[in-house]
Amino acid sequence: MTVKVIDVPEARRYEAQVDGRPEVAGFAQYIRTAELIAFVHTEVAPEHEGKGVGSALARTSLDEARAAGLRVLATCPFYAVWISRHPEYADLLYQARSKVSD
């Protein structure tokens, strides 16, 4: 099985296709700014669950975020767990700046 992941900015999501078929096997919805990409929702079609579609979405989108110099906010539970299991991507995570009190 071959998974192809593409960014579809007009839909604000990454989409995965399997074995060259035109239908969307899964997607990762995001909100992007100039400095940050927040992954807010991920879905994989039931017939493609457990076959690496979600992992392909995460890996491709995070690799592209790294290449673009974006910080990542993983509000989607799938992304949060996936990154925790792949610590080589932890450095991308957005860290809120703590306020300094006087």
- Which radius of gyration do the C-alpha atoms yield? 14 Å
Number of strands: 5
Give the DSSP E fraction (strand runs of 2 or more residues).
25-35%
The side-by-side strand order for the widest beta sheet comes to: 1-2-3-4-5
**Shape field:** globular
Structural class: alpha+beta
Written overview of the protein:
It is a single chain. This protein has 102 residues and is α+β, with helices and mostly antiparallel strands. It has a domain at 1-51. 25% of the residues lie in helices and 31% in strands. It has 2 helices and 5 strands; from the N terminus they run ββββαβα. A 5-stranded mixed β-sheet has the order 1-2-3-4-5. It is globular and about 50 Å long. 28% of the residues are buried. The model has no long low-confidence stretch (mean pLDDT 94).
List keywords for this structure.
5 strands, alpha+beta, 2 helices, 102 residues, single chain, five-stranded mixed β-sheet
How are the SSEs placed, and which strands pair?
Blueprint: E1 3-8, E2 13-18, E3 26-32, E4 36-44, H1 53-68, E5 71-74, H2 77-85
Parallel strand pairs: 4-5
Antiparallel strand pairs: 1-2, 2-3, 3-4
Give a quick rundown of the structure:
With 102 residues, this protein is of the alpha+beta class.
